[in-house]
């Protein structure tokens, strides 16, 4: 009898366990796991993570994992993983990564996924079409350089380079009398080629022709190189050495009247309590041209390895990430220029003088090439540009050597 009772309770316990397990399984079905890789800086990162959290609250069946990677790490890691049939479902980054991704066929053509009604909701400048296919939809337009000015030191921004030099001379000074300069007229990360582009274009130059061939050995390159060096050595309005962090710190500390930087930096200067404005980088007197920084979108692409069963979930999340609501959250916090037409017409954008000034600079910018050859050109420019600044090479020789090295690197890349 005892054995029968024991067997009964054992069987009953087993049945109850199965029922509870079945109940728990029904209440907690296996979630769809979507992975995003991105390279958003801290301010943008926080907005993205907050948006994803809200999305998961509305879609409990989905688990979204957001992973940050530095831009170059993201590019190389994505290529390695996607070529192997793996990688994140969604990848976010600047437009110049699309060229290499397209060559390797590791991102999906988005016009095959989204209908024209959805695509038409975006400003054309926020859509990256390449070789007849749409590979990226941006959540922001721009990623460009402009002039920021400390209103306490520069009440009215300069409109020409000669005005900039005049203002810069008055502001560059040794305030405490220790023989060292404490305040500068202008600061920026002038050793990096990307930050050199506005000066190159201001003198009428550009990095490549329509076929992707480098165009560095030109009179415009020579004049631009000499001009940047003169700002430091002749007019003495910029520091002897100045990388990104140095320029950023000087402006935040109120020890620089003007700074060349981009929209990603706006949030930091607001937090620092700097009363600043934004203006176009001043016109080059000699040419009458507005400096044209490279303009790019930053946005989302879909991994070619996402299967058909998972794709509807990925598409739904994608639409949410580029929605007017999420884009405007970025704009409110960081002053980014949205791509969605509804967001562009919102009062947050229309009534913000900083955003409108950023748009004004963007309007005279030039689209960043998305071809892989651009990477070779950056790598070819850097050593000789820095050699000119270091005084070990003249501008004419530097322009010639940049061109030679760019051609060599492109040839090696295409072997």
Automatic annotation (TrEMBL):
Any Pfam family matching the protein: SBP_bac_8
GO annotations of cellular component type: ATP-binding cassette (ABC) transporter complex, substrate-binding subunit-containing
One GO biological process term: maltose transport
Name of the molecule in the record: Arabinogalactan oligomer / maltooligosaccharide transport system substrate-binding protein
Organism: Candidatus Chryseopegocella kryptomonas
Keywords, alphabetical: Signal, Sugar transport, Transport
Coiled-coil stretches: none
GO MF assignments: carbohydrate transmembrane transporter activity; maltose binding
Family classification: Belongs to the bacterial solute-binding protein 1 family.
SUPFAM superfamilies: Periplasmic binding protein-like II
């Amino acid at each position: 009898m005892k054995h029968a009772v024991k067997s009964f309770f054992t069987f009953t316990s087993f049945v109850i366990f199965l029922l509870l397990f079945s109940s728990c399984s029904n209440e907690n079905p296996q979630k769809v796991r979507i992975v995003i890789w991105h390279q958003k800086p801290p301010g943008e990162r926080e907005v993205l993570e907050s948006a994803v959290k809200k999305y998961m609250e509305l879609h409990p069946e989905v688990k979204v994992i957001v992973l940050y990677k530095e831009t170059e790490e993201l590019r190389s890691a994505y290529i390695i993983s996607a070529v192997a049939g793996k990688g994140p479902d969604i990848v976010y980054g600047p437009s110049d990564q699309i060229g290499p991704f397209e060559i390797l066929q590791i991102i999906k053509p988005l016009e095959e996924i989204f209908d024209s009604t959805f695509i038409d909701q975006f400003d054309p400048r926020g859509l990256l079409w390449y070789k007849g296919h749409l590979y990226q939809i941006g959540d922001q337009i721009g990623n460009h350089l402009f002039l920021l000015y400390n209103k306490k030191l520069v009440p009215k921004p300069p409109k020409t380079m000669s005005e900039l030099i005049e203002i810069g001379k008055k502001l560059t000074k040794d305030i405490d009398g220790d023989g060292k300069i404490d305040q500068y007229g202008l600061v920026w990360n002038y050793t990096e080629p990307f930050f050199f582009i506005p000066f190159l274009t201001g003198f009428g130059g550009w990095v490549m022709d329509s076929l992707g061939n480098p165009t560095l050995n030109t009179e415009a390159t020579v004049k631009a190189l000499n001009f940047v060096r003169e700002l430091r050595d002749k007019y003495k309005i910029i520091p002897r050495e100045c990388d990104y962090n140095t320029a950023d710190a000087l402006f935040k500390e109120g020890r620089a009247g003007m700074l060349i930087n981009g929209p990603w930096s706006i949030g930091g200067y607001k937090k620092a309590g700097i009363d600043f404005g934004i203006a176009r980088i001043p016109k080059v007197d000699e040419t009458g041209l507005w400096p044209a920084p490279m303009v790019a979108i930053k946005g989302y692409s879909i991994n070619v390895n996402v299967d058909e069963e998972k794709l509807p979930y990925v598409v739904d999340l994608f639409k949410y990430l580029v929605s007017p609501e999420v884009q405007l959250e970025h704009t409110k916090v960081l002053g980014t220029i949205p791509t969605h037409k509804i967001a562009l017409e919102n009062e947050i954008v229309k009534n913000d003088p900083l955003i409108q000034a950023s748009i004004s600079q963007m309007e005279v910018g030039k689209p960043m090439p998305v071809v892989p050859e651009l990477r070779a050109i950056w790598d070819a420019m850097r050593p000789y540009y820095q050699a000119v600044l270091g005084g070990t090479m003249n501008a004419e020789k530097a322009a010639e050597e940049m061109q030679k090295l760019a051609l060599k690197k492109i040839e090696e890349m295409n072997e």
